[in-house]
Each structure stands twice: as C-alpha cells, then as structure tokens.
Amino acid sequence: VVFGSMDPNTCRVSISNSTFSGSGIAGVRLFSENQTTIRNTTFSGNSEFGIHSTGSDVVLSGVVMDDPCLFEAAATVVSEGYNIQTDGSSCGFDQPTDQVNVAADDLKLGPLQDNGGPTETHALGAGSVAIDQIPAVDCADADAEPLTTDQRGVARPQGAACDVGAFEVEVAP
Asked: Could you tell me which residues come within 8 angstroms of residue 36 by beta carbon, excluding any fewer than 6 positions away?
C-alpha cells in the first residue's frame, strides 16, 4: 500500500500512512537522487529490508521499522524523530524521541490483516511503546499539513498524542 505523492517540479516523493509488508526484497527501494519523505508508516515482514536506498535522500518521522534498513554510501538519512526500530542496527534513528532496539514484546505489532479500512494493516497491541508518542503538532505530512487520519481513515490522534506508524489505536469514548 502506498499513499503518497510526487512533486513533478522537485521530484520529491512523500509517503505517509502506509504499510509495507511481505515484499520480495524491500518494502521500498529508492534508486534516484531525489528526496523521499516517509511519515507515519509501518514496515514489517519484508524479505530483506524495510527500506533500501542507493542514492535518495530519505527523511523519516513516525516510522515503525520492524525490518532492517540498507542505505548505501550515496544515500543521506535524516531522522526527524518519533521512529521505532526493532533491529537497531541500520536505520540511523538518532533523535532523542527515536526508540531503537525495541523488543517485539514491547512493540506489540499485530499480524498483517483486515483491521478495518480499505487495506490491511498491522495493529498495535495494548501497551505498545508506539501508542501516544507523537505530539499532535508534530503529527504532520511532508508539507507540514496535519495527519488527521491513519491508513484506515481512523481519526488521529485518538489519545493524548498520535501513534507511531500507519495504525492509530482507537480509544473508547
């Protein structure tokens, strides 16, 4: 599932509220020298890598990375925070709000399945470290526009803040 856009004037690619799961080699493979911004997206269950970039500048924020990353020498990686990585070795998450080496038991990422909405997602289980991590002011797309829904169309935020990744846990009224 890809929900995003490409600006034809700058060749800037934006991906948000998306799940990449079960892909052959990588969830996302980037070959160009353009900028790619990925926000509130979940990577899990891809054969080798969540992201493989040979030269694109990659900006990441609010990403759940349950797969390794591969950024070759020509690629530049910028973390804008609120990323969670279970592998901990290759994505360059270096901001104080990033969480690296997170155990699967703490992430509580569910299987890829129909959780409502038009496409399958990985739900966050109760008590997941991804819940309520992104202040509403920082829960925005690449153009600084608020992300008001998750991949399924569920309103964001549901609790005190937005959840990391493509899935927002619904809070009972």
From this structure: 12, 13, 14, 15, 28, 30, 53, 56, 57, 58, 59
Decide: pTM greater than 0.85: yes
- Among left, alpha and beta (phi > 0; psi -120 to 50; other), residue 71 is beta
Neighbours of 128 (CB within 10 A): 24
CA 99, CA 116: separation in Å to the nearest integer? 27
For the segment 117-159, what is each residue's pLDDT rounded down to a tens digit? 999 999 999 999 999 999 999 999 888 899 999 999 999 999 8
Q: Which long-range contacts (CB under 8 A, 24 or more apart) does 110-116 make?
A: 112/19, 112/21, 112/22, 112/44, 112/45, 115/152, 115/167, 116/152, 116/154
Residue type, 139: C
Q: Judge contact between 56 and 33, C-beta under 8 A.
A: yes
- Encoding tokens for residue 25? 């080699």
